[in-house]
Amino acid sequence: MAYDRYVAICKPLHYGTIMGPRACVKMAAAAWASGFLNSLFHTANTFSIPLCQGNTVDQFFCEIPQILKLSCSDSYLREVGLIVVTVCLCLGCFIFIVLSYVQIFTAVLRIPSEQGRHKAFSTCVPHLAVVSLFVSTGVFAYLRPPSISSPALNLVVAVLYSVLPPAVNPLI
């Protein structure tokens, strides 16, 4: 979405050529394939971890950090390695989004008319809202100190970052 907005605002005359059906299919396939492989690796590795503290997870879905808390062996180090790979993948996507929007905002601020700037910004705001909601709740869920953690708060935050952005996305 960030690349689509970048091309639409920064290279509008080339939009049809750059963002043709083939490019859209490639980007969608890359997103689906990376998400599928990432989840496949995590799922396969999670099933290989022995659980010694029961199998009850205090979430409404089986989140990897919650499952790792139930592990009783050192095999969780493989999962930590996969989490590092996932963080690198997500960080790469995040950097790409930030760089795209820096280019967009630079181009938009050069537009002389107020109406033109408003129109350009209004095409970006919905995507930025969804990304900001997802990133901020995800960061809060995984990087908050354990001292402010509670099962109820964990559940609310998990719903916020896993259910709310996909539910709001079609409306935006």
From TrEMBL:
It comes from the Eukaryota. It is found in: Cell membrane. It is a multi-pass membrane protein. The chain crosses the membrane at residues 80-108, 120-142. Residues 1-172 form the G-protein coupled receptors family 1 profile domain. Keywords: Cell membrane, G-protein coupled receptor, Membrane, Olfaction, Receptor, Sensory transduction, Transducer, Transmembrane, Transmembrane helix. This is Olfactory receptor 14J1-like. It comes from Apteryx mantelli (North Island brown kiwi).
